Structures are given as structure tokens and as C-alpha cells.
Amino acid sequence: MDKTIAFLMAPEGVEQVELTEPWKAVKQAGGTPRLISTEQGQIQAFNHLDKGDTFAVDATVEDVSAADFDGLVLPGGVANPDFLRTDPQAVRFVRDFFDAGKPVAAICHAPWTLVEADVVRDRTLTSWPSLRTDVRNAGATWEDKEVVICDAGPNVLVTSRKPDDLKAFCQAAVDAFG
């Protein structure tokens, strides 16, 4: 896979394993992952509620566009997508992947950002269970499965519920990125 994949996250609050495992899967498949955030510098990852490692930001959403990438990964963590969905440039960046027909993979709480971008209507996806009502209210079908692959739209959308689903999520994401 000779593809460049954006990993979008807020300056803090991402669930570390939901960043590192898909990142590793993209690299092992021959892809180039790039960490995109709303601010320069580093992002602070978390292991549930405890601070984890920091990771260097490659570029900000101001400085890139969906055209620069072949796909998008949205890691979860509660605070991460909650922050991203309040940032208009981050929401636009996500929406642009759908408009361009490029694959997107989102895990855990990350579909909150998809709901805000208004890209889930008539799609089927999964998420952390507490997002079920938000997803349904946004016009999507929610399923309780470890991975849901939906191609009933302009792009392939891969979603998973939680860190326990990462093996299936990473494989489906890499397959979607091709």
C-alpha cells in the first residue's frame, strides 16, 4: 500500500492504543501515516483517564486538505472527538474526505466528529455504545459489531466500538485504504 493516511486528533484526549495500533497497521502495510491536529507541536494521548505518551504533530488542519491524503483515521477517546467536533476546520477536513470519496476509519467515540460533519445519514456504523442515540438521530443505522464496513455512500466507512475491536478495525481499515 503506497498511500498516505491522515490521523486526525485534538491536542489532547485521544485514546493512545486507538492511535498507535492503526498507525502501526498502516506502516506495516507500507503506508505513510501522518498526525494531523488543530495545533502545532505535540498531542497528549491518554490510557483511559491517565496521561499516556505525547506524539509529534506533522501538520495542522489549516495547512492540509483531504486532497493531500488517500484516507483518514479518526481515533477515539472521549475528549478527542468532543473537541474536534467543535472545531470548524477539523469538521470541514473530515467532511472533505467523504466529498472526495476517500475511505475513512473511525473507532470508539470518533463517530461524534462524523455526526457533526453530517456524513452519516443513510450509513451503517458502530461506535462506543453511548453514541448509539447520537448516531441514530443523525440518520444512521447503528449496529453492535466489532467492525462495520459501509459502502452505501460516497466512500468506504469503517467503524469499530472499542479498543478490544482493534485487530478487526486495523485489518478492515488497511483493506479499505488498499
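(the above was protein one; protein two follows)
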Amino acid sequence: MTTTTDARLGAAMDVRFGATAEAFLDYLTDLGLDHVEFKREYLHGHPDAPTPEDVRELADRYGVSVTYHAPFRDWNLGSFNEESRRASVRQVKRTIDDAATAGAGAVVVHGGSVPRRYPEWVRSTARENARHSLAECAEYAHLVGVPLCLENQPRDESECRYTTTPSDLEAVLAEVDVTPEYFGVTLDVGHATVNDCDWGAFVERFGDRIRVCHLHDNDGTADLHEPLTDYEPVVEAVPADYFVFETKSVADVARCVGAEPIPIDSRLTSDT
């Protein structure tokens, strides 16, 4: 499987897959894909999760590029609890360090959130904490030399999220005084769809600042992470370096590229 650009096309490792990194790379490269994104939740949760040194070796052996995804569960850069905020920043910095060791091209990060039901003074504090946290993480990314890429988030009825629209995302980026080379954008086309926003609006607004593009689909009612089979127009239009299928199952990765789902053999689990 090839793209019409020099960009890499691959998939993210989700903790739900139960796959070892090596088995998943066997699977991806058999499909003709050449990129893998390691979600921090997978690295936290899988008993045989690779070290950053392992990731570098695997990437070299399989001829794939790599990105990392900073935590997004049990984590919040915009927490109004200062200790939790600082712990979240430390986790992002650790992810940036690991990405540098692994030779990764970028780290994806979410922008934080706060419950809508909380008083205005709490929501204001959380918004400022998110800005402060992102600035600290982006400055660290610049220091280490690995781009940090802020993702557009799906809307949520119970939480206020800060990067759901192009205008909101642009406002957050403008508040962080770090060169775009090291503080870029992750465009998630599925999140744009569920927000009833044309993903092309993000391309028009951010252009070459988009380093990573997440590919999945939904019916507009929820962030379903269904296979996106009509991905080629996105790859042609988005000037990203890395395109990443974000699916709920390993078989859905094959469905995205129009292949028959490859049988899940014993290599895809760690209990063999």
C-alpha cells in the first residue's frame, strides 16, 4: 500500500488489541503499511510493551517510521488540581524523552478538559492550567528536538474541551510561544466529522503545521473510530508527515485499506 505523497501511512497500537509490537508490525507490513503510532495506554497496559530502545530496533528492522501518543486516560493537562496537572506534564515529558530515544518523528497530545458543570472560576483555572501545561511541554519538546502535535478533540456533552474547532485550536496554539516546528498539529478527521466540522477547514487554517493525521470514521453521532476506507482524498489533501489509522480492532486496519482481514494468529497475543 502506497500513498500519493512522501508521507507514511500506518496505524496506532491500541491497548485493546492485545498484540505484541513485533506481531503488530508483521501485520502492518504485510498490509503494505510503513508507520506505527504507540499510544501511551498500550505501553502502560501491555505486559510485553517495548522499551524505547526496542521500538528503535523494531522500526529499523521493519523499515517503519514511528510516532508516540501521549496519555489521554487518567490524565489531564488542564486539571485544576495542581498536583495532577504537574503529574500529567511529567508524563508528557517522559513520552517526549521516549520518543527521542526511539527515533520517533512526533508526539501527539490532547489539550485537556474540565467538567462543564463546575463553576466558572474552576473552568477558568482549568483553561489557564491547560495553556500553562502545553507551553511547558512544547518548550520541552523544542529542547529535546521532537515535535509535539496538539490534536483537535471531539466535543463532549459533559466536558469542556479546548481544541474542538479550528478557531479554538488556533487560539490555543497562539498562546504558546514555541516555534511551529516543535509545536504542531494533529488533525483527527473522525473528531472533525463528529463535531460537524469539515476537516478541510483545519487544512486551510493550519496547512504545513499539521504533522500527524489520524484516520477513522463515524456516523456523526459519536466518536466511533470505525474504519475509514475512503482515506486517499485525505492523504492527498493533508500536508502531514504521518497518517495513522485509529481503529478499535486489528482487523479494522485491514478493512481501512480494502484488504480482507488477516486471520489473527497466535503471534498477536502475549500468552503463547
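Reviewer note on protein two: The mean pLDDT is 93.
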